[in-house]
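Box 3.1 A note on notation
Throughout this textbook, protein chains are presented in two layers. The first layer is the amino acid sequence; the second is a token string describing backbone geometry. Keep the layers aligned when reading.
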Amino acid sequence: MTDKFYSKRRFLFWIKLFGILMLSAMYANWLWDLPHSIFRDRDNYLIYASTPSLLIAQVFSSKSFLFKEPLFLLLNQGFLLLFGDPVRTINTFVFFITFATAFFSFFRTRSFLLGVVVLFFLFIQTQYLGMQLVTIRQGIGTALLLFLFPVIQKKYLIFLLFFICSLIHNSFYIITLFYIVYWILNEKLKIKSFAKKISIFTGFGFLFFSVFFTISKSIETKQNLQSLEESGASGSGGAFLMWAIILGYLLIFKRSTNKTDTSQRIFDLAIIGLVIYLTGYFLTPIVGRMIGIVIPFIAISLTERFRVRDLFFFGFVLAINFYLYFNGAFEGFLNVSLETFHHYIFSDTKFF
């Protein structure tokens, strides 16, 4: 009887996995080959994809090559050798990001309906949609996290994963630092009081970004503040309030001692990302892009053990982002109007 039970569970798991893979492929196929001209910053990615060998030589000749995203260049070189087409390289990156997004949405939720809701949220959430289609370097790193972070058990492998992501986009260095500090507070100092731990962690965030702000004012960085803001880094005071409310809701209603190891890791990363965003919000626009990395983990944490109050709260968050999306928030990532973007993604040729 027991063997039959586990055999049935394995069979259902593989059926579920096959269905999720198919749905993820459909979502990725829907978005992967949209015209490059409709997106901002795609010309820069075409340069990366067209001449990676030249850029690699320049980067690896520098002593600070670890902070010049060398792995992203190597990926471009590899795909250029494989496909011989820079456009195909970028499309492949987008397919990987969007596939990971859909897979994470369905695999990490307890029902098909919740998976659909989470994926819909990740589509209309401006910062994360921008990461899927426009800020591709961050998107690749985030996709790696979506696939690997929930299943890795050993801490040193998690640190290694964050380091690899940092070689794709520098923003992951900051997340790596904060994750290490959170791990020290939790595992090494073993602070039992959650309120005390969060207070110390938040204090570290304010201190770090205060120092970061001071340094950024005195030296020239790779990307000035204006270029960050133009690429979607900045946000309104309303965005700060929304994410602060979400953080409060997670801490009050979604923190539980009965979480599985995977759920706890997802929850911890959501908290870390929100603290990074809120403590650095008034000091650097960089955090406006970094919040996108953890938005899928926030969504899964909000929908875990879904109750009536969670339905109303997530519906509230969904409504806010729906309003922002249809009132021009995503147009900051586009060279065309939102209506034109919709024309491309909802044309008959975009579907199987």
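The chain has 17 helices and no strands. Residues 220-234 have pLDDT under 50 and may be disordered.
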